[in-house]
Design a protein that fits this description.
The complex is a heterodimer of chains A (245) and B (177).
Chain A lengths: L7 H17 L3 H19 L6 H21 L5 E5 L2 E4 L2 H23 L4 H10 L4 H4 L1 H25 L7 H6 L1 H25 L18 H22 L4
Antiparallel strand pairs in A: 1-2
Helix pairs in contact in A: 1-4, 1-10, 2-4, 3-4, 5-7, 7-9
Chain B lengths: L9 H28 L5 H18 L3 H15 L6 H19 L7 H25 L5 H32 L5
Helix pairs in contact in B: 1-2, 1-3, 2-3, 2-4, 2-5, 2-6, 3-4, 4-5, 5-6
The chains are: A mainly alpha (245), B mainly alpha (177).
């Protein structure tokens, strides 16, 4: 069974399950199992993990940040090292590891879900949740406009550079925010007005319903998977909440 | 703004998506600068978030504010830009609704109106991020509260002033008509 065979709602249930487990799991071992389950699911359904190559660097940088934060601020466990006001406690490293694993699961699950279906499938999924098509179709619009807006921002930065704006160090970038951001904002507002007018002229929002070239429907295995995942989420939440009562 | 909360015309819907993308790009730019200058406080990022949350509500009202917030949070999650992306979803939606509710009671012509509306947004939004800092980063709640309070304070003042000045210039430029 390939990833494209699954309904977007099944993928959404899987995403909710992963996020839920990442937040309720307390130990590094549990979190490792959840992360491995996510990686295995991706490997089985898509046959490759190439798309996650980019995220590894981001996660390593993030892990370093979490470690530094824990080394500076953690006050749990016993004091193992002191240098001036800097005090390092024994629990800093285990907490940094669980924090890193939780962050990794959230990032991985999010990438897995949002790259698993086309914008049209997400639109159809929202329509199945009874969201009017005028709102559901904005998914496609955002996917279409993201690279365009990015290119526009880069062209504004280039224009300002040719006028003598320095953008080399972090401080230069900080000073360069206003000269680049304001033209970008004004151009975006103008673009929004023009796009809305063009869409209205093509009949967007004229009628309450509209047809699509494709449709999504839950198959029997989708229904079974969704119910199974929902049951696991409910049981996990109950087992977590019951001891507190 | 006095009483007007909703606006569902095509211009507002398309504007929410496009300005949501602008918000996302600017959040990424300020996030990278913050990662070098103040990795634990994220002052620029917090200010940028508060500013856009307010500006979008003033320009296009609701549900545009919610849509822009969701667009920003979803792309942040999909690109792995932040592990707190999941909490941004709640921060953006709740912050935007709070801004709408507060700004609908004022004319939004004075700086104090912008500061009050921004205070509500910054506090609620940063509370959501604080939950993320505690659950994901395992930060002690006192440190998470301190970090969120500083970000909310700076965001309220700076974003309040920025929103008033930039929204005013957008109105004068007739781009919003």
């Amino acid at each position: 069974m390939g990833l494209s065979m699954l309904d977007p709602r099944t993928k959404l249930a899987w995403y909710v399950l992963m996020i839920c487990f990442s937040l309720i799991s307390g130990t590094a071992v549990q979190l490792c199992v959840v992360l491995l389950a996510g990686i295995m699911a991706s490997l089985i359904l898509t046959g490759s993990l190439k798309q996650y190559k980019v995220v590894i660097l981001i996660l390593l940088f993030l892990g370093l940040q979490i470690l530094v934060v824990q080394l500076i601020f953690c006050r749990e466990g016993v004091l193992i090292y002191q240098w001036g006001i800097l005090e390092i406690y024994s629990e800093a490293l285990p907490l940094a590891i669980t924090g890193f694993l939780k962050a990794s699961i959230i990032v991985f699950a999010s990438m897995q879900f949002f790259t698993s279906a086309s914008p049209q499938e997400f639109t159809l999924m929202l329509m199945k949740f009874k969201i009017p098509y005028r709102f559901s179709m904005l998914v496609g619009l955002s996917v279409r406009f993201l690279p365009l807006m990015k290119a526009e921002y880069i062209s504004i930065i280039d224009s300002q550079r040719t006028r003598g704006l320095r953008m080399e160090s972090a401080w230069d970038n900080l000073k360069g925010i206003f000269p680049t951001f304001l033209p970008f904002l004004y151009r975006s507002v103008r673009r929004a007005t023009e796009t809305a007018l063009a869409m209205e002229l093509r009949g967007y929002g004229r009628t309450k319903t509209r047809t699509f070239t494709s449709d999504i429907a839950l198959k029997s295995y989708d229904t079974v998977l969704i119910f199974a995942m929902l049951a696991v989420i409910i049981i996990s939440l109950i087992s977590k909440v019951l001891p507190l009562i | 703004m006095n009483g007007k909360i909703f606006r569902t015309d095509t211009k507002a819907l398309v504007g929410s998506v496009i300005i949501g993308i602008v918000m996302l790009i600017m959040m990424q730019v300020t996030g990278r600068i913050d990662a070098i200058l103040d990795p634990t406080l994220l002052l620029l990022n917090g200010t940028c978030w508060a500013f856009f949350t307010g500006l979008i509500v003033l320009m296009y009202r609701q549900p545009a504010g919610i849509i822009a917030g969701v667009v920003e949070a979803v792309v942040a999650m999909a690109t792995g830009y932040s592990p707190l992306g999941f909490f941004f979803l709640f921060a953006n939606v709740i912050g935007s609704i709070v801004y709408s509710l507060i700004s609908s009671r004022f004319s939004m012509e004075k700086l104090s109106h912008h500061i009050i509306a921004m205070l509500g947004t910054a506090v609620t939004g940063n509370l959501c991020v604080m939950v993320g800092l505690i659950y994901v980063f395992h930060l002690d709640w006192k440190i998470a509260l301190l970090s969120s309070s500083i970000t909310a304070f700076v965001g309220t003042i700076v974003a309040g002033i920025l929103t008033k000045s930039i929204y005013g210039s957008l109105q004068k430029s007739a781009l919003l008509q």
